[in-house]
Amino acid sequence: MRNERDRFPTLASLKPPRVARAIAILMVAGLLGVAAFVTTVPWVQTAAASGTVVALDPLDRQQNITALVAGRIDRWYVTDGSTVKAGDPIVRIVDIDPRYLDRLAAERAQVVLEADAARQAARVAQLDVERTGTLYREGLASRREHEFAQIKVTDYRAKVAAAQGQLNRIDTNLQRQSNQLVTAPRAGRIMRVKGDDNNTILSQGAVVATFVPDQAKRVVELYVDGRDVSLVHAGRPVRLQFEGWPAIQFSGWPSIARGLFDGRVVAVDIAASSNGLYRILVEPAPGKPAWPTEPSVRLGASVRGWVLMDTVKVWFELWRLLNNFPLQYTPPPGDATTTTTTGTLAGPPPSAK
User: Fold this and answer.
1) Comparing C-alpha atoms, which of 189, 273, 278 is closest to residue 232?
2) 202 in a structural domain
3) Count of structural domains within the chain
4) HSE on the CB side for 210, CA within 13 Å?
5) What is the DSSP string of 282-302?
6) What is the pLDDT of residue 204?
7) How much is the pLDDT for 279?
8) Contact (CB, 8 A) for 243 and 341
9) How far apart are CA 178 and CA 176, in angstroms?
């Protein structure tokens, strides 16, 4: 070695400082460490999504309480934020005419009398038909008299039917007017009331309050990009971060994330939503910690989610991101489709995992 240095006197005269040599050694060690890291450490691929907390049953979601009859507001029994039980009164609506119910009752009594009179007249006319029929067979009455008696019976029966129809119409109006008191369909909370005064005229079906039921079974609806939704199927695990709940997320290493909750995909829409993304429904994962309850996380709260996909090496994930390829794909258990992957059509084989 000394003879070699003598042959290169310039090189022998160079004396690099110890700091430079230490930095060079650290750089080489770092490069070797990074190479070992990306080739050996596993990475969980994820499909990022965002959405909100919703109720699974449509009857448990926010709903509008409407006026069952037309009229004006007489009295409010609730305010914004009131808690109600099933059958509790919310608002009373009265007709514009305060004596409308009295007139309906009087009209009904009159129609009942007319119907009774028509029935009685029909019974008497039927006796006249039988009498003229007997006289006609004995030759003591003309055929015209017998037919005229039959026509009178038919007319009275028509009057009875018309009176019955009018009576049904009056009873329908009375039944509708009996629904002037709007009640809560079930236990829940009044979110907002329509604060109109007593002079405002409401039409039938007008919204008077907004109501949210209690004890709703909650799920999370997430919206996934169209490139990733084909790889999402029912049963895929999901990690969820709720709005206002502190969390530390490591996308590729879910085991060391903190403050996140587990879910499971239960349904995937077959058509895109109006925002161009595809909706998936996520329910709590069985055997995992329960999701935060109210008031920590309410219905409508924003949620970030990560659908857990296949596990690959770090170098493979970096290579995929640099080439903008889709996620690695493995068919779900029991799927008879081909095992050809969509994420490795232009790269390493699936065994690179």
Assistant:
1) 278
2) yes
3) 2
4) 8
5) EEEPTTSPPPP-TTTS-TT-E
6) 78
7) 92
8) no
9) 5
- Is the whole-model pTM more than 0.85? no
- Which H or E run includes 28? helix 18-40
Q: Are residues 314 and 338 in the same domain?
A: yes
Together in a domain, 193 and 264:
no
Cα Dmax for the chain? 162
The verdict on 150 and 264 lying in the same domain is no
User: Distance (Å, rounded) from C-alpha 68 to C-alpha 56?
Assistant: 27
Phi, psi dihedral angles at 302 (to 5 degrees): -75, 145
pLDDT digits (tens, 9 = 90+) for 72-116: 787 888 888 888 888 888 888 877 666 666 777 777 888 888 888
- CATH code of 341's domain: 2.40.30.170
pLDDT digits (tens, 9 = 90+) for 248-284: 777 777 777 778 899 999 989 888 888 889 999 999 9
Structural domain for 241, as ranges: 40-57+216-352
Residue ranges for the chain with pLDDT beneath 50: 336-353
Query: What are the CA-CA distances from residue 202 to residues 2, 68, 185 (Å)?
Result: 106, 10, 20
CA distance 45 to 327: 7
250 in Cβ contact with 256 (< 8 Å): yes
Residue 45: exposed, middle, or buried by beta-carbon count in 10 A (0-12, 13-18, 19+)?
buried
Query: What is the pLDDT, as a whole number, of residue 329?
Result: 64
Give helix then strand counts, H and E, for the chain.
Answer: 7, 14
- Identify the bridge partners of residue 308 per DSSP, sorted by sequence position: 46
266, 340: one domain: yes
Q: Is 92 helix (H, G, I), strand (E, B) or coil?
A: strand
